[in-house]
Amino acid sequence: MAYHRYHGVETRIVRIFNTYGPRMRLNDGRALPAFVSQALKGENITVFGDGSQTRSFCFIDDLVDGIFKLLMSDETNPVNIGNPEEITIKEFAEEVKSLINSNSEIVYKELPTDDPKVRKPDITRAKTILGWEPKVNRYEGLKLTLDYFKNKVKK
Prior knowledge:
Layout: H1 2-7, E1 14-16, E2 19-20, H2 31-40, E3 45-48, E4 54-56, E5 58-59, H3 60-71, E6 79-81, E7 86-88, H4 89-100, E8 106-109, H5 124-130, H6 138-150
Parallel strand pairs: 1-6, 2-5, 3-8
Antiparallel strand pairs: 4-7
């Protein structure tokens, strides 16, 4: 924003929230690839804290669509792009485990001190200014993502 104001050039600022989809790296430290990798290998699925913290996951196709719409707009203020549908980390681990049909156990470890309790985007501006909101529901997105991961992980 400072660059835009100082130099008077066109800029777009997108605030990206948790995104998932095919081609994620299994070792990037995020919840979904960790859960999937552990479940496909039959390892324990690690949840930090009691799993009550919430996250919202946006499928990559929706994210790209939102970024493109922002790029094509005249909006210079920040716009949140993400999926506001929340799920607890515990429920998310259970969902991944169920979709994979894994016998893995869910285990709990200490929650890092800087881990947010809630991570949910307010996409009001994206809806209003860009006419954008996510279209791919989590179940559909997870099926596509899991198909990709199944080919990457060896048991």
